[in-house]
């Protein structure tokens, strides 16, 4: 694949080009546009996180995630904007499911892969995707992605988990829009976990207290971050991570080299919640902390114990968010069991440029019907939340 030509609609003093990896981009320059001062810090957009995926080989040619990030530089050659961009040869590790689209397009004689994707690999986390503040630069990046799709003869360009504002922006620029939902816990300024429970119905409060008592019986729980993290902790975590993949017939996308880099670069943002029984670690959940949110990412266990998954992944995450004064806990994709534990359904978004007109019309019709169903599901699930009616 060759890089796209400069976009004709770009301001004359700006240059748009594709780069084949973040190692070619200055770390500080990237972080200035990915996490600018005054905006919510997102660890998944940091150079440290994204480049670690590339350096470890989790992202690359063999993985089917081929970096082709679009960058905009000013006349002095300084980075002014960027769009994380990957050529994908499959749809794994995305959490926005388009396998049905691929099957339908290929049955009709088309070639769905490779496609272009703007996303954080293996991370169903909402965040900024068009990394620029200037509206002109933002439009140039979107136009550049569309132009690249056409120049390379690809089926489409997809943007997974943008912010709601970006979702509307991309819709205004002609992309199809899709909605799904995730379960997110919101901090209402709670002083502690009991204050959160006070917002729930009496029956639900009793049920969660009982669940936590049983989960913690005979268990010691530790929160480890920064300098407290040691190689032996990562050994346990990685064994748990692999166990989850094998038990769920899944595929562990991330290798040990990535987690070693994560420790070296972002240990202060990592919070490992570890469970120990009779002096031996038996389970672990990995979280990353942003400036406003705690992101639950991976969990696994080496021994069975009642309700330990719920305790480590959801209840402990709430404890951490309250302690740190974070606004919310985003515990990942799917999982209707989160609802009973105070995580409420929220819409999440994606946007899609489909090059083939006939296929685009078919996808647009599907998305309109799907969105109506998702909105209904969100409303119905919210009615089933454990919150007292006057607390919703």
List keywords for this structure.
392 residues; disordered N terminus; 11-stranded mixed β-sheet; 3-stranded antiparallel β-sheet; 2 domains; alpha+beta; Aminopeptidase; 37% helix
Any overview of this molecule?
The protein is an alpha+beta fold and 392 residues long. The chain contains 11 helices and 14 strands. The strands form 2 sheets. An 11-stranded mixed sheet has the order 2-5-6-7-14-8-13-12-11-10-9, with helices on both faces. Helix 2 runs antiparallel to helix 9. Residues 1-10 have low confidence and may be disordered.
What overall geometry do the principal axes of the alpha carbons give? globular
Low-confidence stretches: 1-10
Question: Which structural class is indicated by helix and strand composition?
Answer: alpha+beta
- Our Rg estimate from Cα atoms comes to 22 Å
Largest sheet: 11 strands, mixed
The whole-number mean of residue pLDDT values reads: 94
Order of helical and strand elements: EHHEEEEHEHEHEHHEHHEEEHEEH
Question: How is this structure best summarized?
Answer:
With 392 residues, the chain is α+β, with helices and mostly antiparallel strands. The chain has helices at residues 27-34, 47-55, 99-107, 135-151, 164-172, 193-197, 202-216, 231-247, 256-266, 308-324, 357-383; strands at residues 15-19, 65-67, 69-73, 79-83, 86-88, 115-118, 156-160, 176-186, 220-224, 270-277, 280-289, 293-301, 328-330, 344-354.
